[in-house]
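Entry 14. Ran structure prediction on the chain below.
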Amino acid sequence: MPLPRKAGTVFIVGALGLTVSALAYPAMLGVQNTTTSQTRVIANTRYGPLTEADRDFVVKVRSAGLWEYPLGEIALKKGSTPEMREAGKHLIVGHAGLDALCRKIAPELNITLPNQATPQQQQFVQTSAAQSGKQFDTTAANIMRVTHGQIFPAIAKIRASTQNSLVRELADLANDTVLDHITVLEKTGMVNFDQVNFQQSTPPKLPASQVTPPPPQPGSPVVVLTPRPDLNINTRSPAPSPTVR
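Output, structure tokens:
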């Protein structure tokens, strides 16, 4: 159920900064927290050793697409400016590409992918979808700018530390895609940088159940984020942000 306007505002202020908490996904999805040793090798694969941090990163990228792709579709329909609708296109195309790579490498690494985003991420979508006009643009752009800003350094950390070639490939693509998304979100003119920087650096805590994607039902097909080549969007080479004149 969508939150009323006042409640939605409180949610944005109090909970935008939580997606970064979802990086520490449970060792068994939805069951328990990972150990504190994210560097622990959990499998030796022909692509290199796989650590807990590597596995959690793959799951996190998949989970991000499960909420940002549908929010991109909403932005494409509800965005009140061409810039906001353009951002929606980039979210759709970017996460379709990341999702395809996640689905490709997960079986090779014996990683189970979720079919739903975390409850907290699902709430992000509901909060944004409850708005319209400029309020939708502002709400959605700031939610996504916070979450992208938080995951950006985490991608760099994985890329710098992983010894697994498939995880490196995903980190490379995620780095390009997230930078592209940050850029187009900033071009909407809706980002409140003071608020965003505060929420990125001081994320409140939520119970693990809120930042953990639920495990897929046994035997259920893997959800596919549909590619959209018709949108004619390139998320691998983001255009520079406007410069100050």
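Residues 1-35 have pLDDT under 50 and may be disordered. Will compare against last week's run tomorrow.
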